[in-house]
């Protein structure tokens, strides 16, 4: 699966929240996400632009835990990249499996995420601990699909939200490394 | 977690099944298990005696899927080794994550497994496709625990089952490789 995604840095969410309602986006939920990123024993993911992550989302008194692989970014304007996810039953054991395979914890990212839906798009308002506030708009495409139309639609939505600058191709992981 | 385990090759299960009932073992269930083993991009698991596996167990119309890491064997008489497991939601995506990380499918093992419980021990009767029939007795220990007492108890159970030879330290993966 390809994740077609464009991120933008914003000062705050007041304007965006108002405009999201105006254009008919529906707020689905708020999530707290604790992400741990790993680096590989046989290559440097910072160089290859890949990522391996365990995400923990506390939900109704228990944790949803997701293991995610992300491939390198596929164009020069967006964060579009291959993304593969599975839910796992246990964060500690998943971490232990990765550590025993030689993967090492590289960084962690914690955020609150408000999630909106608009047609086939997911719009998120992220308050990222120690990094800042960001809007992301994303949708999914198949591996052999042309993603340019989806990208155009994403930039159209940004226009309707009054956002035409501040676009950010770097991942939160990359931004955290710069911030440190 | 340490998996303390001793395996033995048997001609058939007739004798063992009778004796299991005599010594008070309780049959829990029968599982069909389809295992795929992977090798690593940065070392050869055949040399390091490690294993990485996706196991699929069809159960009540859906699949239970388990990702398992096994460390090297820890002594000269048993298959005792570190074992870490998590349930995952999707076998195909787990395979894709591993493949994208550079792991490669090395072999697959398919078996029917009858599972018995006796005190803290799990006794399994395995009919392994293209390999043969085996009994395994295993229990769990903590990482810092002395496993020799558990091992002695396992060999005692084998004695009570009338089994004193045919012990097999090689995994099914290793046996399949020899068979090919």
What does this structure look like?
The structure is a homodimer of 180-residue chains. With 180 residues, the first copy, chain A, is α+β, with helices and mostly antiparallel strands. Chain A has helices at 14-22, 45-48, 91-100, 148-160, 172-179, and strands at residues 2-10, 26-39, 51-59, 62-73, 81-88, 104-118, 121-128, 132-141. In chain A, a hairpin with a 7-residue loop joins strand 4 and strand 5 (81-88). The mean pLDDT of chain A is 95. Chains A and B meet through strand 4, strand 5 and helix 3 of A and strand 4, strand 5 and helix 3 of B.
Which tags fit this structure?
alpha+beta; 8 strands
Lateral strand order in the biggest sheet of chain A: 1-5-4-3-2-6-7-8
Average pLDDT metric of chain A: 95
Report, as a whole number of angstroms, the end-to-end distance of chain A.
32 Å
Low-confidence stretches of chain A: none
H/E order of the elements of chain A?
EHEHEEEHEEEHH
Question: Structural class per helix/strand content of chain A?
Answer: alpha+beta
How many strands in all of chain A?
A: 8
Helix proportion range of chain A = 10-25%
Query: Which assembly state applies to the chains in this document?
Result: homodimer
The proportion of residues in beta strands of chain A is over 45%
Pair of chains with the largest interface and how many residues each contributes: A-B, 25 and 25 residues
Tell me about the biggest sheet of chain A? Answer: 8 strands, antiparallel, barrel
Instruction: Estimate the global geometry of chain A from the Cα principal axes.
Output: globular
What does the radius of gyration of chain A come to? 16 Å
Number of helices of chain A: 5
């Amino acid at each position: 699966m390809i994740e077609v995604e464009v991120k933008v840095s914003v000062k705050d969410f007041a304007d965006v929240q108002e405009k999201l309602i105006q254009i008919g986006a529906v707020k689905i939920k708020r999530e707290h996400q604790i992400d741990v990123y790993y680096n590989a024993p046989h290559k440097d993911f910072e160089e290859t632009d890949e990522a391996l992550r365990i995400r923990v989302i506390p939900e109704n008194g228990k944790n949803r835990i997701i293991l995610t692989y992300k491939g390198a970014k596929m164009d020069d304007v967006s964060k579009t990249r291959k993304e593969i996810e599975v839910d796992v039953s246990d964060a500690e054991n998943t971490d232990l499996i990765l550590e025993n395979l030689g993967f090492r914890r590289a960084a962690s990212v914690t955020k609150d995420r408000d999630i909106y839906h608009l047609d086939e798009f997911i719009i998120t308002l992220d308050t990222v601990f120690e990094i800042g506030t960001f809007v992301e708009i994303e949708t999914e495409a198949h591996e052999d699909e042309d993603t340019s139309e989806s990208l155009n639609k994403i930039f159209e939505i940004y226009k309707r939200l009054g956002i035409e600058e501040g676009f950010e191709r770097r991942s939160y992981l990359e931004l955290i490394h710069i911030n440190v």
